[in-house]
From TrEMBL:
Biased composition (Basic and acidic residues): 351-361
Domain Fork-head as annotated: residue spans: 224-316
DNA-binding region: 224-316
PROSITE patterns: FORK_HEAD_3
Record's protein name: Winged helix DNA-binding protein
Keyword annotations: DNA-binding, Nucleus, Transcription, Transcription regulation
Annotated source species: Glarea lozoyensis (strain ATCC 20868 / MF5171)
Pfam families: Forkhead (PF00250)
Length: 452
DNA sequence: GTAGCTAAACATT
DNA sequence: AATGTTTAGCTAC
């Protein structure tokens, strides 16, 4: 990246010099308000260090043996069944020397060292670096581990390979704005250690530092959902477009191979099926008619990590062993069913959303009643095992239906109330007629539609 | 049985 | 064409 030591930042830019985006993607001019050149940006702060998820690690022993490099808590499944969120790397340095993001909303997608905000307030610049990964094609001597680390500037031979930081992020849509303090945990120190499955005599509760090799091996074995989670956690706003996710996989995993496209399919599959990943739309600046789709981590996933995608699988029970004569035909047939079902389900979901809207409107009339019970509700909520936006497990939901409530991608205002949730309702009548009932066999239907 | 990967069909953008 | 959704076969544990 060309970060250099020195008390006096030198901000020079030659005319015609190619500008790069910090996440490696070209930007529209309108989006280029924050751009750094690859070579002439000079870090005004000497002896700096970073906090935040860092991807792409030098593998040199000197790097790993450096005391300043923190240990890793390689988040694994936690007691609540989630993959732990491993969003932050900390340093054993004083906070004044650390680079950390203070305000996500302030971070532009790209940066320009000539931005007056930087020149006049240089501390703001590197305070907000969150991600750091190599982009050069030749990675032969650089570990592409997706694990997060902290490049140590003392070893510039390694460090110089980091041609840019990733500030890939776009402003969240209004309705996606995070509540205050939502990302507070992002700056909280998190240790990166091996999961406690080792032979330590504490029963595995203690953790130990991973070696670089272990991290690489571990990362290579990580499931897609976890890797996607990690990718999204590596950017400040926890959002990426699909192509950025692809690129992250190319650079940080062994899955992103060019020889086949199956891994892309798998990524899309995981994005679609895992409730930790939510789809948002962002209007393209300057052209309100165009929108780009971004994938963003759900709030609970930021806090708690991601669950396995298969957990969201429809539990109809794949008939193992029920093979047709032709494997190919079976495959095609299953896909065809999926496609047809997808279409049908899309329709039914759409109808269900309309129903939900109607239900919500009806329930709004209960606002008054809810306010009467607010205090008791609050006390009940306090007894919740999980935070309200944390999706319940199968067990918690106690659904007779095999459908896990994965794609109730509800906006905050339309989330089921804690007071009254559809899961709690076993039947409803309108004008004396049953609107829906929850049959004992679990085949609950909502106005003739399957219950989701 | 669960988790994960993968292929595939189909829909949507 | 790229992206998104869904089903389901298969393997490993």
């Amino acid at each position: 990246m060309g970060f250099q030591y020195g008390e006096n930042p030198v901000m020079s830019r030659q005319s015609g010099q190619q500008m790069i985006s910090l996440d490696g993607y070209s930007r529209d001019q309108s989006d280029q308000h924050f751009v750094a050149t690859n070579s002439d940006f000079q870090l005004p702060t000497p002896n700096y260090s970073l906090t935040g998820p860092i991807t792409g690690l030098p593998q040199s022993p000197s790097f790993w043996s450096n005391q300043a490099v923190t240990s890793f808590n390689y988040g694994d499944q936690t007691s609540n069944g989630y993959y732990a969120s491993s969003s932050t790397v900390t340093r054993n340095t004083s906070s004044s020397n650390c680079l950390h993001r203070n305000h996500v909303s302030d971070i532009p997608r790209t940066w320009d060292p000539y931005d007056p905000r930087i020149i006049n307030n240089s501390s703001m610049v590197m305070d907000q670096v969150d991600s750091f990964y190599p982009t050069e094609e030749d990675h032969s001597d650089v570990s592409m581990s997706p694990a997060m680390s902290t490049p140590e500037l003392g070893d510039r031979s390694d460090h110089q390979r980091y041609s840019h930081t990733s500030l890939s992020q776009s402003p969240k849509m209004e309705e996606e704005s995070l509540p205050a303090g939502e990302l507070d945990g992002f700056n909280q120190p998190t240790q990166f250690c091996l999961p406690g499955k080792d032979d330590s005599d504490d029963g595995g509760t203690m953790s130990r530092e991973m070696t670089a090799v272990e991290i690489d091996e571990h990362a290579a074995d990580e499931p897609y959902a976890k890797l996607i989670h990690r990718a999204l956690m590596s950017v400040p706003n926890h959002s990426m477009i699909l192509q950025e996710i692809y690129q992250w996989f190319r650079e940080n995993t062994t899955k992103g191979t060019p020889d086949n496209k199956g891994w892309m399919n798998s990524i899309r599959h995981n994005l679609s099926m895992n409730a930790a990943f939510r789809k948002t739309e962002r209007k393209i600046f300057g052209d309100e008619t165009k929108k780009s789709t971004e994938w963003v981590l759900a709030d609970f996933a930021v806090r708690d990590g991601v669950q396995s995608t298969t957990r969201y699988r429809k539990g109809t029970g794949a008939k193992k062993g029920a093979r047709s004569n032709s494997h190919i035909r079976s495959r095609q047939d299953s896909g065809r069913r999926g496609g047809l079902s997808a279409s049908k389900n899309k329709f039914t979901r759409q109808r269900f959303r309309e129903q939900r809207t109607d239900t919500r409107r009806a329930l709004q009339s209960y606002d008054f009643l809810q306010s009467q019970y607010q205090s008791s509700a609050t006390s009940n909520m306090g007894a919740r095992h999980n935070s309200p936006s944390t999706p319940p497990s199968h067990e918690q939901m106690g659904l007779a239906s095999p459908y896990f409530n994965t794609h109730m991608k509800l906006e905050p205002y339309e989330r089921p109330m804690d007071l009254i949730s559809l899961e709690d309702v076993q039947g409803a009548y309108l004008n004396g007629e049953p609107v829906f009932t929850d049959q004992q066999d679990g085949s609950g239907y909502f106005d003739g539609l399957p219950r989701y």
